[in-house]
Design goal:
CATH topology: Nucleotidyltransferase, domain 5
Largest sheet: 5 strands, mixed
CATH class: Alpha Beta
Radius of gyration: 14 Å
Number of strands: 5
Strand content: 25-35%
CATH superfamily: ATPase, nucleotide binding domain
Number of domains: 1
Order of helices and strands: EEEHEHE
Strand order of the largest sheet: 3-2-1-4-5
Helix content: 10-25%
Length: about 100
């Protein structure tokens, strides 16, 4: 039996952190949450869905100063996290639009 994956992405700002969770390959967001910039909050928010969800948790943070701080805090607490640079996401030529689907 194949394990399911829960994808979570964080957008970090000086005053807030916004998290968005996507169950598996569904196109519907399961949950979004905006919280104060307190590193304990996203950890608590991530651990709550883990109790309900069996399978792998894949987390990413935006490549910014605050994103790196959050990623290090998550790694320190045993939560695997990747840093993603939005500017490096491939775009379709001449459109400025992000590619969708497989690359």
């Amino acid at each position: 039996m194949q394990k399911s994956i829960r994808y979570v992405a964080f957008d970090t700002h000086q005053d807030t952190i916004t998290g968005a969770a996507l169950p598996g390959l569904s196109s519907d967001l399961a949950e979004t949450k905006t919280m104060p910039t307190d590193l304990a909050r996203p950890v608590k928010w991530l651990r709550r869905p883990e109790r309900k969800h069996e399978g792998e948790l894949m987390v990413c943070c935006e490549a910014s100063g605050a994103g790196y701080v959050l990623c290090r805090a998550l790694l320190k607490r045993g939560i695997t996290c990747e840093v993603v640079a939005p500017s490096l996401i491939p775009k379709n030529r001449g459109t400025g639009r992000r590619r969708t689907g497989s690359m």
